[in-house]
Specification:
alpha/beta; Purple Acid Phosphatase, chain A, domain 2; seven-stranded mixed sheet; six-stranded mixed sheet; 15 strands; about 25% strand
Length: about 300
C-alpha cells in the first residue's frame, strides 16, 4: 500500500510539473525553425529562395511579448512570406495583428484565411478533439475584411480560392490556394482552375490553412511542388517520443508538423505560434515559425 501511495504521489507531482511547464513556460518559448532539407523545385541555375512560413498566431491584444516577437521577424533575411491563417484570437486583435505584421509587409507575401480569422474563439471541451475534427461553436464574427485589406495593402497575394504569381530572385512562382477547408469555405476545384490561368511558371506552390488529405491530393493534381499549411498546432499537446496525439483533421499524426513527402508533393506544416485563449498550453510542441529554402533541381 505504501508503494502504491508513493507512486500516486509521484504521478501527481509529475502531472503538476507538466502542467506548470506547458501553461507558464513552453507556450512562451517561441522558436524560428530553419528546415535542413532544401526543396529542389526551381529550374537549374536558379537563385535559392528563403521562405518564412508562419501560421496560427491566435493573437489577443494583451499578448505584448508575442506581438513584439512577431514584429521582429521583419528583420529576418527571407525572400518570401507565407501566412497560412488563424491570425486572430480575439475580437479586438485585428489592429494589433496588422501592426505586428507590418514589418513583414515590406516583403513579398501570400496568405489564406483560417476559421479563426472569421469567428472569435469560444470555450470547448478539449476532450472533443479525440472524437474527430472540431466543429465551430462560435457565432461572433471578426473584422475579416479589415485584416484582408491590410494584407492586400502590404502587396501580399490573397489566395483564398484563387491564384497569382510573383517573381522572386528571378524565378516566376505561381501560387494557388484555398480558403479554410476546415470551415467548409475551401474550393478544391479552384486549385486546378487557378493553375491553368497562370501561364508558364518556374514552380507552382499551393497554400491552404488546414492540411486535409483532400487538399494534398488536389494540390498534387494541380501540379504543385509544395503545399504550405498550418491548423494542426503540431498537436499542441504532444507526448515525448510519441508526438502529436491529434491533428484536428484527417492528416496522420506523423505529419502534424514539419516536412513530409506525398508521392512527390512536399507538405510543410507549421505548428504555429499560438493557441486558443481558452486553451493556453503547449507541451512537447514549442510555438514556431519555419524557414524553408527553395533551391534548383539537382542541387
Amino acid at each position: 500500500m505504501i508503494y502504491v501511495t508513493a507512486a500516486l504521489v509521484v504521478l501527481f507531482a509529475l502531472g503538476v510539473a507538466a502542467g506548470i511547464w506547458g501553461v507558464f513556460i513552453e507556450r512562451h518559448l517561441r522558436v524560428i525553425r530553419e528546415e535542413t532539407v532544401q526543396l529542389q523545385v526551381l529550374p537549374a541555375g536558379s537563385t535559392p529562395i528563403r521562405v518564412l512560413h508562419f501560421s496560427d498566431l491566435h493573437l489577443a491584444p494583451w499578448q505584448r511579448r508575442k506581438l513584439a516577437w512577431i514584429a521582429r521577424l521583419g528583420k529576418l533575411d527571407v525572400d518570401l512570406v507565407i501566412d497560412t491563417g488563424d491570425n486572430l484570437g480575439h475580437v479586438d486583435a485585428v489592429g494589433p495583428t496588422i501592426a505586428a505584421l507590418q514589418p513583414l509587409g515590406a516583403k513579398p507575401g501570400v496568405f489564406v484565411n483560417g476559421s479563426n480569422d472569421y469567428f472569435a474563439p469560444h470555450f470547448r471541451n478539449p476532450l472533443t478533439y479525440f472524437s474527430g475534427p472540431s466543429k465551430r461553436i462560435s457565432e461572433t464574427p471578426l473584422n475579416t475584411e479589415r485584416l484582408v485589406c491590410a494584407f492586400e495593402g502590404f502587396g501580399w497575394l490573397n489566395l483564398n480560392n484563387r491564384g497569382g504569381a510573383l517573381t522572386i530572385n528571378g524565378s516566376r512562382l505561381g501560387f494557388i490556394g484555398t480558403d479554410d477547408i476546415h470551415e467548409h469555405r475551401g474550393d478544391l476545384e479552384s486549385l486546378g482552375k487557378s493553375a491553368a490561368t497562370l501561364g508558364p511558371v518556374d514552380a507552382l506552390i499551393a497554400v491552404t490553412h488546414a492540411p486535409y488529405l483532400s487538399a494534398i491530393e488536389a494540390s498534387r493534381a494541380a501540379g504543385a511542388s509544395v503545399l504550405f499549411a498550418g491548423h494542426t498546432h503540431g498537436g499542441q499537446v504532444c507526448i515525448p517520443g510519441f508526438g502529436a496525439i491529434v491533428t484536428n483533421c484527417d492528416l496522420p499524426r506523423h505529419a502534424a508538423k514539419g516536412l513530409s513527402n506525398w508521392d512527390g508533393l512536399w507538405l510543410n506544416v507549421c505548428a504555429g505560434l499560438g493557441h486558443s485563449i481558452f486553451a493556453p498550453v503547449r507541451f512537447a510542441c514549442r510555438p514556431e515559425v519555419r524557414i524553408v529554402t527553395l533551391v534548383a533541381k539537382g542541387n
